[in-house]
Specification:
Blueprint lengths: L6 E2 L6 H17 L7 H11 L5 E2 L24 H16 L5 H12 L14 H10 L3 E3 L7 E2 L7 H4 L10 H17 L3 E4 L15 E6 L6 E10 L2 E8 L3 E5 L2 H6 L4 E9 L16
Parallel strand pairs: 1-2
Antiparallel strand pairs: 3-10, 4-5, 5-10, 6-7, 6-10, 7-8, 8-9
Helix pairs in contact: 2-3, 3-4
């Protein structure tokens, strides 16, 4: 278990406070000329900006009340592993489009986080591989796992949330529980699951680029991934830039060593940022949040 002070549960800050944090991020992006860099390099640079930010438990959920109204939460004071990837991706898109706009950042977040961009707990992308698939359909990411030599697991099934209903307070609502079950059934019909096995990760370092989105494939029943982060490239090293329970946003210097060091992580799934090459408004339906 991580030390008690390494994981923070914090109230969601007021919107004007987050807007001020956003303004500082955009100031950094302008000074670093991130708009002139390829998206992946900009993602790595912006991810580094957040080094040391705390790990937050359940950063999107303001209350444990049954079936609270879902709100679009955009926070930059800290992250879990999933919201770290999501926030950096949305921020870099805001730089890439030249708007540097807080409203555009929130809109990009909404479109990444929710199926069809429609705010609601059941529409939230709880499963990371489905988050990637939706972003791929939007022209934002491309899942390159198969392309770089990933192995297919035809037996992977989605169902962790419904099988662990008690771990998700919102699923005390029967309607939300049934809705999540339907989402999982749809994923089981439509998703193809490829991963690079953990002992083969170092062999694909040359095919990975700075800012690629990484998720750790798992053998846990019903779950697609257990952790997420960004490829970190420096000199001849390939590491993981991620929001960790053991220290907040940090860099683990060797990606394969990190994956092999955690039980149940069997490999990686890789998604590459491709926005700027053409983008659509379409969307689909996710390790979980």
């Amino acid at each position: 278990m991580p030390p008690p002070d390494s994981v923070t549960v914090a109230d969601i800050p007021p919107d004007d406070v987050t807007n001020e944090r956003f303004r500082r991020v955009m100031h950094f992006a302008r000074r670093a000329n991130l708009a002139e860099r390829p998206p992946g390099q900009a993602i790595q640079a912006l991810g580094r900006y957040f080094l040391g930010r705390p790990y937050l438990v359940g950063p999107l959920d303001q209350t444990l009340d049954q079936n609270p109204p879902e709100q679009l939460v955009c926070r930059l004071d800290g992250f879990d592993c999933f919201t770290f990837d999501e926030a950096v991706l949305a921020l870099v898109r805001t730089v890439d489009d030249g708007s540097y706009s807080y409203d555009k950042y929130k809109d990009y977040t909404r479109r990444l986080r929710y199926r069809n961009g429609e705010i609601g707990y059941c529409n939230r992308q709880h499963y990371y591989t489905a988050f990637v698939k939706q972003a791929e359909e939007q022209g934002v990411l491309k899942n390159i796992t198969r392309q770089i030599g990933g192995r297919r697991n035809p037996d992977k099934r989605y169902g962790f949330m419904s099988a662990h209903r008690g771990e998700y307070p919102q699923l005390e609502s029967d309607s939300l529980y049934l809705c999540i079950q339907q989402v999982e059934k749809r994923l089981n019909r439509t998703m193809d699951y490829y991963y690079v096995p953990q002992d083969s990760i170092r062999a694909v370092y040359g095919k990975l680029k700075a800012g690629d989105l990484i998720s750790t494939a798992t053998d846990i029943d019903g779950l697609d991934v257990t952790h997420t982060g960004l490829v970190y490239k420096k000199a001849d090293t390939t590491g993981l830039l991620h929001a960790s329970t053991s220290g907040g946003v940090k860099i683990s210097p060797d990606l394969q060593r990190y994956v092999q060091g955690v039980d149940s992580q069997i490999g990686i799934i890789v998604a590459r940022p491709v926005f700027g090459e053409g983008e659509s408004e379409s969307a689909s339906a996710s390790g979980t949040r």
